[in-house]
Design brief:
72 residues, alpha+beta, Alpha-Beta Plaits, three-stranded mixed sheet, 28% strand, globular
Length: 72
């Protein structure tokens, strides 16, 4: 949430049932997205892999949310 506020990101982040963390991040500023992904790769905890993919532009988030479990 701190990172989302600092970099003016929209989207969501969640914990998956398999122990991984998923996220959708959006920003008007591509540089903010690049910086956020770079920070995610460093941690704060153990990070095995960060995969960044371009998502379709048909879903626009209005804010940012954190979910502690997501089934799908």
């Amino acid at each position: 949430m701190r990172l989302a506020r600092e970099y003016h990101l929209r989207g969501e982040v969640w914990n998956s049932l398999d122990g991984t963390v998923g996220a959708v991040l959006q920003s008007e500023n591509g540089g903010n997205l690049d910086r956020a992904v770079g920070l995610l790769k460093r941690g704060p905890g153990r990070v095995d892999e960060v995969e960044a993919l371009k998502a379709p532009d048909d879903v626009l988030y209005d804010g940012f949310s954190v979910s502690y479990k997501r089934i799908a």
